[in-house]
Amino acid sequence: MPSSVMPTSKNVDGHPSPDAVSAVGLRKSYGDKVVLDGIDLRIPAGTVFALLGPNGAGKTTAVKILSTLVSADAGSGEIHVGGHNLATHPQAVRAAIGVTGQFSAVDGLITGEENMLLMADLHHLPKNEARRTTTTLLERFDLTEAATKPASTYSGGMKRRLDIAMTLVGNPSIIFLDEPTTGLDPRSRHTMWQIIRTLVNDGTTVLLTTQYLEEADQLADHIAVLNNGKIAAQGTPDALKRLIPGGHIRLRFTDPTTYHHAATTLTDTTRDDDALTLQIPSNGSQHDLRTILDRLDTHHIEADELTVHTPDLDDVFFALTTPAHLPHQPKETTR
């Protein structure tokens, strides 16, 4: 997903910065309520970084701090966004970023085109450049036909596309998307995913907060799971899934004789004699599956059904952010 040529941010001294965003020991409390308890974030340029967590975990607060809307608490370490120190050069940070919140910033009383021109005016673009940018972005987000209609007549997906188009008027190198697909239908959500992929392919860095775990799995190069103000775990989607035990291959038989032959031959299995099924521990990798299939061939074992059970981000989320006694079943893929 990242662009083959990743952009390099520069700090105020002109020195290259390898990370689009970096924060050390980020803290924020409201009274006695600790929202962020010293978290560290590092987002390489030209990637998608997803923050996951339950409501109240601190995702939106982190975005607000990094986008200069809220101040971090004293005692937080240095924060750099777009190569600029957030504490000493907030204006430079604001010039480098774009922010799309959970709720659309679109003004429904005016047209889509007028929303775009208003945003261009806020960025102090000359009139000719404002018109050119508006036309280009409306075309890019497939909103040209609706440009002269009041934004109140737009569907949820159209409003979200217009919202992001408005965010891009200032040509930001970093975009914060705070739950950008909340309330969208599945088709509009997939359209938004494609827009985000295109942005990153063009070299933009995206910090995404979402409660849709499939969304993070589809889009993110790196994920951090927030829980009670701390990062419970972080890594690539695949690395996080490997943290959760329980992956296995399930073999189901219809013939009792074949089942008992397999059960006595494969000694590392969990048996269910009533259901005529065996479970073999597996990490779900292609190599592991091939090894198990080779074992079955060697011992002339033919199961009537083979099902791969692999932990997914739902399992990661439940394991890291909810009490262990809450049950959750891993996904199955029948082959």
Please summarize what this structure is.
It is built from 11 helices and 17 strands. The protein has 335 residues and is an alpha+beta fold.
Question: How are the strands ordered across the major sheet?
Answer: 8-9-10-5-11-12
Main sheet, how many strands, which sense, barrel? 6 strands, mixed
CATH architecture of the largest domain: 3-Layer(aba) Sandwich
CATH class wording of the largest domain? Alpha Beta
Low-confidence runs: 1-17, 323-335
Features:
335 residues, alpha+beta, Alpha-Beta Plaits, 2 domains, 6-stranded mixed sheet, 5-stranded antiparallel sheet, 26% strand, disordered C terminus
Question: Can you put this structure into words, describing what you see?
Answer:
The protein starts with 8 loop residues before the first strand and ends with a strand. The chain has 335 residues and is an alpha+beta fold. A hairpin with a 4-residue loop joins strand 14 and strand 15 (277-281). Helix content is 34%, strand content 26%. It has two domains: 9-106 and 154-241, Rossmann fold; 242-334, Alpha-Beta Plaits, CATH 3.30.70. Mean pLDDT is 87; it is low at 1-17 and 323-335. The chain contains eleven helices and 17 strands. Strands 8-9-10-5-11-12 form a six-stranded mixed beta sheet, sandwiched between helices. It has a five-stranded antiparallel beta sheet with strand order 14-15-13-16-17, covered by helices on one side. It is elongated. Helix 3 (112-122) crosses helix 4 (127-140), helix 3 runs parallel beside helix 5 (156-167) and helix 5 (156-167) runs parallel beside helix 6.
